[in-house]
Write a structure and sequence with these properties.
By secondary structure, this protein is an alpha/beta fold. Helices cover 31% and strands 26% of the residues. Flavin-adenine dinucleotide binds next to helix 1, strand 2, strand 10, strand 14 and strand 18.
């Protein structure tokens, strides 16, 4: 079947790869000049299956209220006159119950495991290299109370099937010796040896090249403006434009939407209603000055909600979450807070003078569970809304959507969207 994939972020490119593998004729439409240049560009780098707790949990409402108005808050709601933001917030609150949390974790861990296995298989098959490290993820805590609460969450992850070991401060330092300087401040940690890290942008670029070599057509610099309904319950065409050409209408057999935070706006006129809101995050990438002082095990600093991933000769530090529409401007206070914490933990590790600052918009659903599967249109498919975990889930979500488009059921117990459901 001739399939058009909309968007060449990590999700779109992974979808294209598996659709091509399944024998489809695939074209990818991307408005930027290359693959992986928006949210997939400079994320935290973690393939984090076992630390997949969604933001929506029973402790979140109180914590978010405490953070309201604090410029350096890890999760900041900037309340706006924007119905989509309020709708998202209300649904987020509905997901803060213990029962919803358990259900959301189950879905996220199932998809994450499936995805990590697909990534490993892809690596073995193609030899794709993207500054990956398979040394696990260490989540460390500097606040004793939070650490105590975290042990309950750890049990939830274990119940969902993750290997997650509780570690003392000394054990944390043994796993990541670069933490030795702050040993006295660490309350404890959890270590997930099966998790990984790597550069999502490099991966996306390399996978796009592998796709192209196998016949996938990439049309860069082309923006999708609308989808048109055809006869019966189908989408018949997409309308496109590019800088130097007149608008174009492309007939389609099937469409997979992977437009990240822009998916909902494109689909709303068709009555396909997605509750995806942009959640802005920051990253700082530092060239390494002293390799011994910079971490190599991927880390999550619970107190500041920051993740650290070693990407070859660079240290990537990412985090913070801000609900403030589609604005991607850099806020100096947030950049400084990240650099300050990095210097506190790993003094002299990275070159702050040559730091690269970036913001990206996570395509977040209130539950953090993405939309993967069919829609009310027979030939319109979704692979979007992966929020904080799009890199972790890319290969699994891509493999699953290729199965669904091919009329098969993916071999993972996940809440896929069924055909005929508008949401
Ligand atoms: C600070 C930060 C840290 C993160 N850390 C991690 C992490 O450690 N681990 C993890 O798993 N995930 C992480 N994430 C999340 C992850 O980066 C995202 O979930 C993922 O990149 C989303 O990929 P995507 O392909 O769905 O979206 P995108 O990468 O945004 O791709 C969508 C593509 O669609 C294109 N597009 C949009 N509109 C149009 C249009 N009209 N026409 C044509 N093209 C269009 C865009 O140009 C873009 O290339 C992080 C995110 C942030 C912001």
């Amino acid at each position: 079947m001739k399939i058009i994939v909309l968007g060449a972020g990590v999700t779109g490119v992974a979808s294209a790869w598996y659709l091509r593998k399944a024998g489809h004729d695939v074209t990818v439409i991307e408005r930027r000049v290359g693959a992986g240049l928006e949210t997939s560009f400079a994320n935290g780098g973690q393939i984090s299956v076992s630390h997949a707790e969604p933001w929506a949990n029973p402790h979140a409402p109180l914590q978010i209220l405490k953070w309201l108005g604090r410029e350096d808050a890890p999760l900041l709601f900037r309340l706006r006159a924007d119905w989509q933001q309020w709708r998202w917030g209300l649904e987020f609150l509905r997901n803060c119950t213990a029962a919803r949390l358990r259900d959301n974790i189950r879905n996220l861990v199932a998809l994450g495991n499936y995805s990590r296995a697909a990534l490993r298989q892809l690596r073995a098959e193609t030899g794709i290299a993207y500054d990956q490290l398979t040394r696990g993820i260490l989540h460390f805590y500097t606040n004793t109370n939070t650490w105590r609460n975290a042990q309950q969450a750890a049990q939830l992850m274990r119940d969902a099937g993750c290997t997650l070991d509780v570690k003392t401060a000394d054990e944390c330092v043994a796993i990541e010796p670069a933490l030795a300087g702050v040993r006295g401040r660490i309350a404890g940690g959890t270590y997930t040896p099966d998790d990984e890290s790597g550069d999502a942008h490099l991966f996306t670029r390399e996978l796009a090249a592998l796709c192209a070599a196998r016949g996938v057509v990439f049309r860069y610099g082309v923006t999708v403006d609308a989808l048109a309904r055809g006869a019966g319950n189908t989408i018949s065409s997409v309308t496109l434009h590019s800088a130097n050409a007149a608008a174009e209408t492309l007939s389609v057999n099937g469409v997979v939407v992977c437009l990240g935070v822009h998916s909902a706006r494109l689909l709303r006129p068709l009555g396909v209603d997605l509750n995806i809101y942009p959640v802005k995050g920051y990253s700082v990438t530092l060239p390494i000055l002293d390799p011994v002082r910079a971490s190599t095990v991927s880390l999550t600093d619970d107190e500041y909600k920051l993740v650290f991933s070693r990407l070859g000769e660079r240290l990537r530090v990412a985090g913070t979450a801000e609900l403030n529409g589609y604005d991607t401007a850099l806020n100096t206070a947030r950049c400084e807070a990240i650099v300050r914490r990095t210097q506190e933990l790993f003094p002299g590790a990275g070159d702050v003078q040559r730091a690269q600052y970036w913001t990206g918009l996570r395509p977040a659903t209130p539950s953090n569970v993405p939309y993967i599967g069919g829609t009310r249109f027979d030939n319109l498919y979704l692979n979007t809304g992966h929020g904080t975990l799009g890199w972790t889930q890319a290969c699994g979500a891509g493999m699953a959507i290729a199965e669904i488009v091919s009329g098969r059921a993916p071999e993972v117990n996940f809440a896929f969207r069924k055909r005929g459901r508008a949401k």
